[in-house]
Amino acid sequence: YDNLLFASESAINHIGRERINTVSLFWLQGEADVYEMANSSFDEVNEKFKQYFVDLDVLYNNLLNDLNIPKMLLYVIRLGASITDNEIVDTLAIDLGYWQIEFCKTNNNFFPLSILPSTFNKNNETLSIDGVHYTPYGYDLIGRDSAVNFSNYLENNDTSEILYQENYSIAPIVINKKPF
Fold first, then answer.
1. Which residues in 40-161 belong to E strands, given as ranges?
2. Average pLDDT, the chain
3. Which of 51, 54, 85, 145 has the fewest Cβ atoms within 10 angstroms?
């Protein structure tokens, strides 16, 4: 958190706080969370999913307050598929990614930015050998897709409904009830 806060403060100060009315943050996170959940019971996983989204909302509000900015928009990049030797991790990655995008519907300051990582695998050279982390090529693709979609948002061309529809094609497997 401190690194994120420091980097954000530096950027805000460089531009000039008085010139900023909205800060945008791209969110791509969740791999460590699904690994942590892998040895949990179903009830514990449900609780951890709920807590993930409570924590995301708390993070948003803490950043807004700590940065002392009038408005922040958080653009969510869906957690990608993973292909590991642990089927539970792989399944939870699909589920968490799905709900990350669905969460955007519940908060006017959260927007879906990309679901592209949900299509990544080792065969298309977007997942690294560990089956979890992205390759440089994968990150390049995420960057391109996110840039196009972010540009659309800036031009008042809201692509969220298209992303919501595409998100439905990779539905959750274990956590079928909305965790927030």
1. 72-77, 110-114
2. 94
3. 85
Q: Can you spell out the DSSP letters for 90-109?
A: HHHHHHHHHHHHHHGGG-TT
The distance between the two most distant Cα atoms of the chain, rounded to a whole number of Å, is 51
Number of other residues whose CB lies within 10 A of the CB of residue 135: 16
In a 10 Å sphere around its CB, with 0-12 CB exposed, 13-18 middle and 19+ buried, how is residue 115 labelled?
Answer: buried
Torsion of CA 146, 135, 119, 160, to 10 degrees: -10
Query: Which residues, at least 6 apart from 83, have a Cβ–Cβ distance to it below 8 Å?
Result: 90, 121, 122, 127, 131
Distance, in Å, from the CA atom of 121 to the CA atom of 163, rounded to the nearest integer, reads: 20
Q: 63 phi and psi, to 5 degrees?
A: -65, -45
Is beta strand 23-27 parallel, antiparallel or unpaired with respect to 110-114? Answer: unpaired
Cα–Cα–Cα angle for 74, 69, 96, rounded to 5 degrees: 20
| Positive or negative torsion for Cα 19, 21, 26, 32 | positive
For residue 7, how many C-alpha atoms fall within 13 Å in the half-sphere facing its CB? 5
- pLDDT per residue as tens digits for the range 54-75: 999 999 999 999 999 999 999 9
Nearest to 169 by CA among 106, 101, 122: 101
